[in-house]
Fold this protein.
Amino acid sequence: NRGYLPPDLPTLVLGGKFPGLPPQTFIRPGSNDTPAAPMNTPPSQWASKLTPNSGFCSFTYALAGSDRITRIRSATTRVMVYETTPLPGRPTLVLFADGHVEAVSAANWGPMLAGLNAGPTSAPSQIGNEFEPK
């Protein structure tokens, strides 16, 4: 992929980098979502269902429309995947581009989500929209 980020979760799953990844990986325990397929089902039969609010995926891919991973200024603060609908009274689960996961409080998640929705910018930010300008 020459450093290009996948446009969505289905592309990420079907890219072959995660063989044997079960559909249950994309479900937050306690959520109303259900796995897209039974265990051991080939990803080609379920990956296309991994979209926000589909009922088969508890998470949203935040790097859609991004360019290359080398353009991310700070992988420790760049949100990669986040929980679409957090459980009531619980923090939002967030996966960052460096691979670490944080449980982010509602008070902190609101500004982070607003920054994500604003899209990548050329200015650094604590909320993860820190891409190098093209």
Observations:
- The first helix runs from residue 9 to 14.
- Confidence is low (pLDDT under 50) at residues 121-134.
- The beta strands are 59-61, 79-83, 92-96, 101-104.
